[in-house]
Amino acid sequence: VQSFMRGWLCRRKWKTIVQDYICSPHAESMRKRNQIVFNMVEAESEYVHQLYVLVNCFLRPLRMAASSKKPPISHDDVSSIFLNSETIMFLHEIFHQGLKARIANWPTLILADLFDILLPMLNIYQEFVRNHQYSLQVLANCKQNRDFDKLLKQYEANPACEGRMLETFLTYPMFQVVSVYFFAFCIVSHRVMHDEVSDTENIRKNLAIERTIVEGCDILLDTSQTFIRQGSLIQVPSVERGKLSKVRLGSLSLKKEGERQCFLFTKHFLICTRSSGGKLHLLK
């Protein structure tokens, strides 16, 4: 009966702890972060596919056509229409693969360094945006050529295009650059907020431990010190040549085993004794 009651009390306490965490600001922050990340992975996957269609169904075939005996379009016009689309595709493929590798380690997600890949792309996207209107004008002029227009319609009939025209694929990077840097801002903002929450919780933990020590403990008032773990250790006396020798730990002389309450921090290791009344006393 006692075993049953202890189990029931433990499960009830654990349920309360879980429910409190689910409703906590930290849990809500993590849910928002996860939603941002999962939406970003889904959007990035779709975007890489769009770039793949743009490059493989339009850019590369037209580049080959420009090298034919009777080219329906010149290499200069191909470069003007597509500019650095292929480079953007390569970089986003690397970024997408990195995202999938990090998601495989969920719930541990470290993404900030991945956005270092995107930072150099800002200049590339700026060139693409500035060139966008000109690329559409060049494309419109090329469509005046019947041979080119006929060839382009063949490319657009590819099932991978799903009925979309070349102009549509050339427009996708215009919108994606906003989404990518919005996701980057959300991730960085969450990281700063998460650090602030962690610092606050750490200070509260240190103060809670300091208040349990009868003599107090000034070193726990250092806000740069982080709590790691706590637990009980058994201090045992040493034996020399079959004789029991005294072990001196701080102000305590020990002739027999004794349980010590220990607290490990990044800068200090505290050892305490617990009195019969349950209070902690710090050893020097």
From TrEMBL:
Alphabetized InterPro entries for the sequence: DBL_dom_sf, DH_dom, FYVE_RhoGEF_PH, PH-like_dom_sf
GO MF annotation terms: guanyl-nucleotide exchange factor activity
Ranges of residues in domain DH: 32-220
SMART domains the UniProt entry points to: RhoGEF
Domain of life of the native organism: Eukaryota
One GO CC term on file: cytoplasm
Database matches in Gene3D superfamilies: Dbl homology (DH) domain, Pleckstrin-homology domain (PH domain)/Phosphotyrosine-binding domain (PTB)
Protein name: RGRF2 factor
Organism, as annotated: Phaetusa simplex
Lineage, highest ranks first: Eukaryota, Metazoa, Chordata, Craniata, Vertebrata
